[in-house]
Amino acid sequence: MNPTIRHRAGRVVLTFGVAAGAWAVAASAPMAETAQPTGLAAAGNAHAIVLAQATPPAPATPPAPEATGFAALVAAGDVAAGQAASLQCAGCHSFGEGEPARFGPNLFGIVDHPVAASAGFNYSPGMAAAGAAGGIWTIDYLNAFLESPQAAIPGTTMPFGGIADEATRANLIAYLATLTPGGAPAADAPAGTPVTFTQAQVDRGERRYTRDCEECHGASLNGGLIGGPPLRGNVFEGKYLNGAPASALFLFTSTAMPPDNPGGYQASIYADLVAYILTHNGFTAGTEELPDDVAALGALVMTPTP
User: Fold this and answer.
1) Of 162, 214, 218, 252, most Cβ neighbours within 10 A?
2) Which domains does the chain have, with CATH numbers?
3) Mean pLDDT value of segment 232-237
4) Alpha-carbon distance 241 to 230, whole Å?
């Protein structure tokens, strides 16, 4: 038989002449490896068999790029260690969804969140400028800020010197990355040591408070005549007490008081003021002095005795 080639409706048709007639095979390129007839057309003594077109394989999904550099450290970070490291931040920040801000804003959902975008929080000019410029708390930006806040955002008022150890920063950011709706729960951080202070500190703090603070905050710490906020009560407790580290209250007093010279007292005077304020919020004096070092205060939790 002698094959001939014809084109029909975009297909190549091979016609083989035989004694009793002709068979025409129409194939659409590309053809399946195994021919499967999908139609049979009779035209006199000629028949056409149309072969099914092979379905091309779906393109493979490209693998997600692997994290490199500091992002790789975060991806492999120890979330539990990061939560423990966050105790040094808890003096100024809350972490739970919907929790009120403290001296600093709430950090729930901070990773990849716009800078200075926590509703209702009064940011420093430096932080507000970084937000207005379109800053985003990416992993790398958080890393730079946690290493040196003032270098990363000049003009920030965050009273924190930074975290020098890269692994600690990576673990902390790994923990912060879990603080999203539906995020993996982090392991519990160490509970910390109950705060303690001496009666001598209370007495010194009372004298300082009466001299410099009573006019603004009131003799009973319920708020003064010229607008100072209460230093006791439900709002104050929710913001600074109920398990918060003692550094939270220390940083509040040492960065806001006295109003005409914030931070103008010696650290020991601020520790005395904290001791006095605590006595008005359900705490009693003990035998060990309240330290005046922020790191040491971060390990002490403020939970009133029932």
Assistant:
1) 252
2) 3-51 (no CATH), 69-176 (1.10.760.10), 193-302 (1.10.760.10)
3) 84
4) 14
